[in-house]
What we know:
two-stranded parallel ribbon; alpha+beta; 7 helices
Amino acid sequence: MVGGYTPDKVALRRAIGLGLDAKNTINYAYAGLGTLSQGPTMPNTTAYLPSFKSEFSDYDPARARALLDLYGYVDRDGDGWRDMPDGSPLLLKVSTTPVARDRKIAEVLTKNMTAIGIRVQSLPAQWPENLKAARAGKLQMWSLGLLAAAPDSSGSYARFDSRQIGGQNLARVRLPAFDALYDRLQVLPDGPERTAAFREAERLAVAYMPYKFTLNRLSLDMAQPQLVGYRRAVFWQDWWQYVDIDNSLRKAR
């Protein structure tokens, strides 16, 4: 339904991306704790460019409708919903989990897709079940996140490497140009040539859009005054070995 590399399939994915109001998702599902994502290169990693702007952050339902019209995704049977170019039903089957935040994410997506004439069916299941189905190629669409475990930016691009289909590459992307870029990123030293390779990888990511990158999450921490040494780690979650309690700083009861 949403896979493939022909112009009409690429247009469908890009229309879905343009029709999704990521800012609304951030405000509604994440209580405003996020910034618009511009692609797979994650903040605080080596190739991240704060000034970089891409289509990933665009919300433009008019452009989405125009793309769908241009490539034949129109209502052919008069039921109010767009159909595939061959006349078969266009139905996005979106997997989700039965938790509050994911329900809100699905709610925004359904509302946005309805506005551009695309019907959505939400399929709630437990997270491990969705992961198993995604790795087996039996899941059409899903929303989930990822973390950078190291300062290097290349980890995010494992999701485009065809040799990692069934693993990190949940979208099952298979593009020789991406495989070649991923291999170059593993061997090039940091510098202008490697940075240029990241920019080319970002260009392919937005051109084919097998993933819709939505937001970079923000976190808020609260600590008692007697907690000493706490600082959220940028690339991993370990922090407890660096902290202590100073009772002299504890507030009087």
